[in-house]
Design a protein that fits this description.
Elements (H helix, E strand, L loop, with lengths): L6 H20 L3 H14 L4 H13 L3 H14 L5 H27 L12 H10 L3 H5 L3 H29 L14 H8 L2 H27 L10
Helix pairs in contact: 1-2, 1-3, 2-3, 3-4, 3-5, 4-5, 6-10, 8-9, 8-10
């Protein structure tokens, strides 16, 4: 082109650039094609063809935000082109998908989300935690929670056993002979279990046991729903 190109020369150059950009897009060279659309817009910022093509290229690259901006710009420049409405809709969906993916990635980084798990059987998960609290959580793919639940149950179980043993020792009477075990006052034992420190340990033990089964079953049921995003 000459130093001061005429309007026809500018339009000829624009058509050439758009043609080359379209060809590059067909070859999968979107980035190179985008550079040509930028050059076209540098020559004529009111070129709706360049805006639309740039939108197509951004959409090919899964850049919904940029595609939406270019399609809207093309629509403002040429309101009679109906196909742009459909393209704007597609770009809006692509942008929403990108934003949702970004939110989930951020949540994963912040520890507010868990990666998607394969479907688990709620009944089987609850049964495992009924056998040994924490096994259901391990089955669901939650090793940290599973080991915490299991360790808590074992500690509370041990403390409850020690409390009950102490209660039995306190309730035992003197032996009647070398061949006889100490007699135990059953009423005193039952009274001790359902009162004082022993009762607290028993309640904690039952609470952890119920929580382990309920949590394992509920978490497993969430993995079976298609709308479980993993954000907690």
């Amino acid at each position: 082109m000459t130093e001061n190109p005429t309007a026809s020369e500018v339009q000829s150059r624009i058509r050439e650039l758009l043609g080359r950009a379209t060809l590059l897009r067909a070859r999968g060279q979107q980035q190179e094609a985008l550079k040509l659309t930028e050059e076209v817009l540098g020559l004529d910022e009111a070129s709706w063809e360049a805006c639309e093509l740039a939108g197509d290229l951004f959409l090919d690259l899964d850049k919904g935000e940029e595609a939406l901006e270019m399609y809207r710009r093309a629509k403002d420049l040429n309101r009679s082109r109906g196909v742009l409405e459909e393209k704007i809709g597609r770009a809006a969906l692509a942008r929403a998908k990108t934003q949702e993916s970004s939110k989930l990635s951020q949540a994963l980084l912040e520890g507010r989300a868990q990666a998607s798990l394969p479907p688990r059987k709620p009944g089987y998960a609850a049964l495992l935690s009924m056998i040994v609290p924490g096994l259901g959580q391990l089955y669901n793919g939650e090793p940290v929670k599973g080991f915490i639940v299991m360790a808590s149950f074992l500690v509370i179980f041990a403390m409850t056993g020690m409390a009950l043993r102490g209660q039995l020792a306190a309730s035992a009477l003197s032996p009647r002979g070398a061949l006889y075990a100490p007699q135990v006052d059953l009423n005193s034992v039952l009274t001790g279990i359902f009162s004082g420190v022993t009762l607290i340990w028993v309640l904690l033990l039952v609470g952890v046991y119920i929580y382990a089964m309920a949590d394992a079953g509920l978490r497993a049921s969430r993995t079976m729903t298609s709308d479980d995003s993993g954000v907690v």
